[in-house]
Structures are given as structure tokens and as C-alpha cells.
Amino acid sequence: MSTPRATPPRVPPGELGATRIADRVVAKIAAQAAREALAGSPPTDGDPPHATVTVHHDIARVRVSLELAYPSDVAAQCADVRRQVVHRVEQCAGMSVPEVDIDIEQLHSRHTRPGAGRDRGLL
User: Fold this and answer.
1) Among 20-29, 42-51, 71-80, whose mean pLDDT is lowest?
2) What is the Cα 28 distance to its own chain's centre?
3) Is 120 helix (H, G, I), strand (E, B) or coil?
4) N or C: which end of the chain has fewer CB within 10 A?
5) Closest CA to 46 of 101, 100, 112
6) Angstrom distances, CA of residue 25 to CA of 30, 35, 48
7) Are the C-beta atoms of residues 74 and 104 closer than 8 Å to each other?
8) What's the count of helices (H) and strands (E) in the chain, helices before strands?
9) Which range among 8-22, 32-46, 109-123 has the greatest average pLDDT?
10) Cβ neighbours of 29 (radius 10 Å)
């Protein structure tokens, strides 16, 4: 009598293959996270946050460009953005984020915005 051959265990289909998330997708997640972090801040008339990302294996290095209102607590806003970006990229993409660099492109003062200080009701 021959002994039956041992069959290798079957791997469930959901555990086969690899997933690669493009840098631009991670950048969109990071930019959205920055918008979420700034949602409670004074509004600006500037551009929304923009992010660039470099991914190596499962590590994302993120750079976020912001325009903020002035006067405001710039350091606190940057800390909020960093926290939210790290949280969202880890949550949505499963990547670790060891650093988030922030470039503040412009500060917008309500005193220098077009139409600031004018009462439109008195025309």
C-alpha cells in the first residue's frame, strides 16, 4: 500500500499577492488629513494644503505645504497637521510616517485680504 501524499496547506486568496499604494495616493491622503486638521482654524483665501510623499517599502516621508491665517498659533496648527497626517496615513495606507515636514508658503492676514475692513452693506 502506498501512503497518501501530504498536500500543502491552501493559502486563502485574500492572503496572496502584494499591494502597492502609489506615492500620489498617499499624498492625497496626507493633503486631506491636513485639511481635516485645519478645519477648525481661521479660514484663508489661499490654496488648500498640498502634500508630496516619498514611499520606501512601508515608510512614507511626507512634506505638506500650507497657507495659514495670520495672526494665529502657527506652531499649534503645524503640530495638529503632523498628528493628523501621521494618523491618517497609518490608518488608511498602513504605512509608518517617521516625519512630516511642513512648509508654510504664505500667511494671510484678514487686514490685507481684498475687501477686508469694508462694510458691504453700506454701498
Assistant:
1) 42-51
2) 6
3) helix
4) N
5) 112
6) 9, 16, 17
7) yes
8) 2, 3
9) 32-46
10) 22
